[in-house]
Amino acid sequence: MGQDNRPPSASSIDSATRSRANFSGHGNSKGAAGYNASAAMRSDANELMKSGETFSINSVEGGYGDIEIGAVWDVVRQKRSGFLGNLLGLKKKTNVDLDLGCLYELTDGTRGAVQAFGDLYGSFDKPPYIKLSGDERTGEKEGFDESIMINGQKWPEINRVLFYVYIYDGVADWAQVQPEIHFCVPGKSPLIVGLNTRYEELNLCLIAGAERVRNGIRVKNYTEYYPGHSEMDRAFGFGLSWGDGYKQPV
After folding, report:
1. For residues 156 and 215, is the Cβ–Cβ distance under 8 A?
2. So what's the pLDDT on residue 94?
3. What pLDDT band is residue 41 in, cutting at 50, 70 and 90?
């Protein structure tokens, strides 16, 4: 993954925003339920379920261990239409391919993206010290559907990370997939960040951000929706060059 601190070109923005919608900010949409983790998991966890809420994780002497940010979502089954579907209560599986990704900024000014689309899987042992687990397309496996690992020993070299999920294929109906992000820091209670709002027809949801504050971690619930990566990028000033949903090589 190359470094890119230049502003995006007009052509790359145009190609990434062909379905551009007129939307910015958060809190401009109706309520939606999030993924329901087990009662046992939630009993030990802290939760950020409203836009703008923050939670701080204190720094650890000697650095954190391996930090896992896991994404979970439901593959909701919709009732089939037609006479037999209504009569028998038949349901079909929602066809949605949801992916987890992040934007990062290191202390040396390096900025980039980690996501499956574009094969930007990152690296754990060298910059950016952030690595994606893989591309899970069904949302039906046990545990996290996808996860991002952060090398906690290198957290002092990271300024900020924005975590988003985007619908790569399928209808942009966030009520059907109900994503959440779980922050798992060794020795700390899990932190669950979920959506309390939704905005239909926009394929990308910025769920949460993690910022380094005095070598600790401050997590914020954003729940902001965008028509594409470049709009999210511009909103937070990363200045990457985007093609059709992926960061272009330098």
Report:
1. yes
2. 54
3. low
> Beta strands 191-194 and 180-184: pairing type?
antiparallel
How far apart are the C-alpha atoms of 69 and 190, rounded to whole Å?
10
- Strand-pair category, 46-48 with 191-194: parallel
| pLDDT attached to residue 172 | 67
Per DSSP, what are the bridge partners of residue 149?
68, 131
Nearest Cα to Cα of residue 137 among 126, 150, 146, 127: 146
Which residues 6+ apart lie within 8 Å of 220 measured at CB?
A: 48, 52, 53, 54, 208, 209, 210, 211
The conformation of residue 117, written as its DSSP 8-state character, comes to: T
Residue 229 token pair: 């990566």
Helix (H) or strand (E) holding 164: strand 158-169
Residue with tokens 């042992």: 125
**Structure tokens belonging to residue 241:** 């060059």
For position 13, what pLDDT does the model report?
33
Q: What is the mean pLDDT of residues 152-164?
A: 97
d(CA 135, CA 238): 24
Q: Are 21 and 202 in contact (CB under 8 A)?
A: yes
Rounded Cα–Cα distance for residues 76 and 86 (Å): 17
Predicted TM-score (pTM) of the model is 0.77
